């Protein structure tokens, strides 16, 4: 089986043109994230122009919420998840300058307003608290070059509270280790230059155990493999310099088997329905392993490395 | 539409119903149908909803209603304040139905929460919201029953009920039925078991605050232990349930602190102020002793460890539920006796090396023609890996 690059490009291109399909409207609240997943996958496949740059930027700007963040869709309330996706896409398209300095200030103020006293972040005023949102906030502020010692110190303190005995991290202190949470915690510590806090041998061991005999990776012990963990697990291993601690050839085979070789796209596991979320994380996993002549992905930001190389690194001079 | 919404809402929030959403139902309409209740409360009706009907009959008109409201830049609080009681009820019903389809729609969640917070003083409303969320979390669709946002909303409503002066132990059975039912629907339900960990930590905290019902909360923690332990032993590979069991019998200080913070976070902007002070000023935390139970669990874990070749789930239950030295001793003894039984195979363990984070077998002969030796070797290597892994923690 070979990598169906052209079909994947066509699959992503078609997603935005299905406005007559009721599923399109059911996923309206995920549109900003979906666009980020699609654009990133296209960039990694060296096809960034498949989605018209001006249209993408216009959509992003149409989702600005007066409260400072970005919503998932025009007129939706701002949320950290959609705000990060918006900022990531503007950076990828080299279009951060479409934001006036005062607009950047209001985005930064929105993000910072969601940090709690213990250093954690809530996603919005609904109040969901999770290490995902710490990563989301720190990532977005890092792209904008607006991290501060107060924000960083609180975030690092909270993340360190979420470390578990097995080397992994959970969503809050004392919660079960989960590979996606591991990525968000290790990613935050990488951005804030505090990887010294990670027990890298123990975590590497826990992550390497996520590989199953069929080559796929799971997110927790005893769970089924899922292509998205090709990103969450692999990027975490890459960040702690242990990318070689899993069998690449077998994972490559698992990801390719999860492709829809007829209509394009990648699913969570072989023979399931493809979606753009699993498509980007499958392709990003392949990029990390160096397969298929893909653009190099940054394991911390899940964006092309050529873009993230330009970000200001913490601590700032 | 409003009448349709009200009718559906009455069904969805009725504790006598179980909700099922079918992707490919035989007919194109919402319908009712009866099945025995899986939770053991006797016959319970089942609401069967067709996904497409849910979209066309309920999602689209409600989506249009909410979209009409978000057309201006007024803050939601101002918009809701301008609504009449009937309008507010219609918006509330719309958010309830939309959350059944798009449970992670942040705008809808925000509006839903604001309305609920406006109604905290109305016990009937809060009770109905509680039943609605319970039905959602017991729904057959994983997308709904494992939703982090719905579990958080459920947590908020539990806190509101306690803050309103209700004795939480009086509805503990309902809470445990939701946790276990959701855990049955979705294997290793991260949010269901995390909710349960929070609940037991909260009850421990309340038991130490000097409130008159304190002793009842201590008893309730034991009831949670009994329910979770029973679930764990009937689902021995459910890693999330075992992690929760560890948090119930021996929560860390940071877990307890986190539970209090989460409870306070739920109370923001909505609850009676008196309860804040109860949460903020606990007395010295009284340890609820589980020594006997821990020893019993370790005995069982030892049996699981010896009888099941995969060790993935055992690791955390051992360390979390404690009893590590005892278990390590049992397993090491077992490994030694296996080596004595089969010295040839035991000798091959010398070729197990730690590489790339994993104890791997290097250069072991293939046992293709000798299935018994192959199985024995596999068991022995798994046991060896487990013992080596546990030794890391025994010395730290």
TrEMBL record, chain A:
Taxonomic superkingdom: Eukaryota
Biological function: Catalyzes the transfer of a geranylgeranyl moiety from geranylgeranyl diphosphate to both cysteines of proteins with the C-terminal sequence -XXCC, -XCXC and -CCXX.
Record text on subunit structure and interactions: Heterodimer of an alpha and a beta subunit.
Protein name (Swiss-Prot/TrEMBL): Geranylgeranyl transferase type-2 subunit beta
InterPro entries, sorted: PGGT1B-like (IPR045089), Prenyltrans (IPR001330), Ptb1 (IPR026873), Terpenoid_cyclase/PrenylTrfase (IPR008930)
The organism of origin for this protein: Babjeviella inositovora NRRL Y-12698
The record's free-text note on cofactor binding: Binds 1 zinc ion per subunit.
Catalyzed chemical reaction(s): geranylgeranyl diphosphate + L-cysteinyl-[protein] = S-geranylgeranyl-L-cysteinyl-[protein] + diphosphate
Similarity-based family: Belongs to the protein prenyltransferase subunit beta family.
Enzyme class: transferase
Domain Prenyltransferase alpha-alpha toroid positions: 3-303
From TrEMBL, chain B:
Protein name stated in the entry: Uncharacterized protein
Native species: Babjeviella inositovora NRRL Y-12698
Top-level division of the source organism's lineage: Eukaryota
Organism taxonomic ancestry: Eukaryota, Fungi, Dikarya, Ascomycota, Saccharomycotina
């Amino acid at each position: 089986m070979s990598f169906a690059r052209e079909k994947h490009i066509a699959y992503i291109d078609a997603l935005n043109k299905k406005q007559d399909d009721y599923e399109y409207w059911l996923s309206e609240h995920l549109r900003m994230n979906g666009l980020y997943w699609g654009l990133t996958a296209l960039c990694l496949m060296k096809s960034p122009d498949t989605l018209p740059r001006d249209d993408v930027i216009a959509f992003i700007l149409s989702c600005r919420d007066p409260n400072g963040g970005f919503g998932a869709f025009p007129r939706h309330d701002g949320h950290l998840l959609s705000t990060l996706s918006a900022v990531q896409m503007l950076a990828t398209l080299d279009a951060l300058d479409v934001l006036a300095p005062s607009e950047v200030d209001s985005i930064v103020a929105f993000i910072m307003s969601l940090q709690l006293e213990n250093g954690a972040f809530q996603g919005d005023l609904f109040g969901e608290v999770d290490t995902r949102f710490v990563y989301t906030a720190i990532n977005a502020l890092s792209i904008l070059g607006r991290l501060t010692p107060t924000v960083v110190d609180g975030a690092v303190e909270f993340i360190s509270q979420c470390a578990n005995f097995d080397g992994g991290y959970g969503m809050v202190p004392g919660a079960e280790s989960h590979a996606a949470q591991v990525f968000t915690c290790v990613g935050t510590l990488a951005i804030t230059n505090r990887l010294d806090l990670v027990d890298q041998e123990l975590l590497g061991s826990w992550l390497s155990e996520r590989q199953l005999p069929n080559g796929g990776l799971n997110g927790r012990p005893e769970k089924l493999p899922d292509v998205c963990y090709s990103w969450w697990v692999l990027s975490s291993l890459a960040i702690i310099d242990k990318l070689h601690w899993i069998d690449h050839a077998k994972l490559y085979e698992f990801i390719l088997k999860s492709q829809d070789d007829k209509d394009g796209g990648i699913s969570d596991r072989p023979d399931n329905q493809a979606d753009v979320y699993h498509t980007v994380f499958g392709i990003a996993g392949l990029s990390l392993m160096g397969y298929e002549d893909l653009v190099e992905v940054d394991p911390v930001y899940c964006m092309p490395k050529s873009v993230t190389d330009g970000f200001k690194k913490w601590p700032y001079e | 539409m409003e009448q349709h919404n009200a009718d559906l809402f009455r069904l969805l929030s009725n504790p006598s119903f179980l909700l099922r959403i079918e992707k490919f139902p035989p007919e194109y309409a919402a319908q009712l149908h009866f099945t025995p209740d899986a939770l053991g409360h006797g016959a319970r009706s089942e609401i069967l909803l067709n996904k497409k009907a849910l979209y066309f009959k309920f999602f689209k008109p409600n989506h249009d209603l909410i979209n009409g409201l978000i057309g201006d830049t007024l803050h939601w609080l101002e918009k809701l304040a301008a609504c009449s009681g009937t309008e507010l009820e219609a918006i509330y019903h719309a958010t309830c139905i939309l959350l059944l389809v798009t449970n992670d729609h942040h705008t809808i969640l925000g509006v839903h929460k604001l309305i609920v917070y406006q109604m905290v003083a109305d016990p009937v409303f809060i009770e109905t919201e509680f039943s609605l969320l319970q039905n959602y979390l017991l729904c057959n669709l994983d997308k709904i029953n494992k939703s982090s946002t719905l579990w958080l909303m459920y947590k908020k409503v539990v806190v509101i009920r306690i803050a309103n002066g209700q004795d939480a132990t009086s509805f503990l059975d309902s809470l445990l039925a939701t946790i276990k039912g959701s855990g049955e629907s979705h294997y290793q339900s991260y949010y269901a078991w995390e909710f349960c960990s929070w609940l037991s930590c909260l009850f421990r905290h309340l038991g130490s605050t000097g409130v008159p019902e304190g002793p009842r909360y201590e008893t309730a923690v034991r009831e949670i232990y009994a329910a979770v332990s029973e679930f764990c032993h009937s689902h021995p590979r459910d890693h999330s349930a075992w992690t929760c069991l560890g948090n119930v019998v021996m929560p860390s200080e940071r877990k307890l602190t986190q539970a209090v913070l989460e409870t306070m976070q739920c109370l923001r902007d909505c609850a009676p102020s008196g309860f804040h002070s109860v949460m903020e000023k606990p007395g010295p935390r009284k340890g609820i002793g589980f020594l006997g139970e821990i020893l019993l669990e370790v005995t069982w874990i030892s049996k699981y460890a010896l009888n099941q070749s995969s060790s993935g789930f055992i690791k955390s239950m051992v360390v979390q539920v404690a009893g590590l030295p005892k278990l390590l001793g049992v397993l090491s003894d077992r490994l030694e006796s296996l080596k004595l039984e089969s010295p040839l195979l035991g000798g091959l363990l010398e070729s197990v090396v730690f590489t790339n984070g994993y104890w791997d077998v290097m250069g072991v002969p293939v046992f293709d023609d000798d299935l018994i030796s192959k199985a024995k070797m596999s068991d022995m290597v798994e046991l060896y890996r487990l013992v080596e892994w546990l030794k890391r923690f025994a010395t730290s």
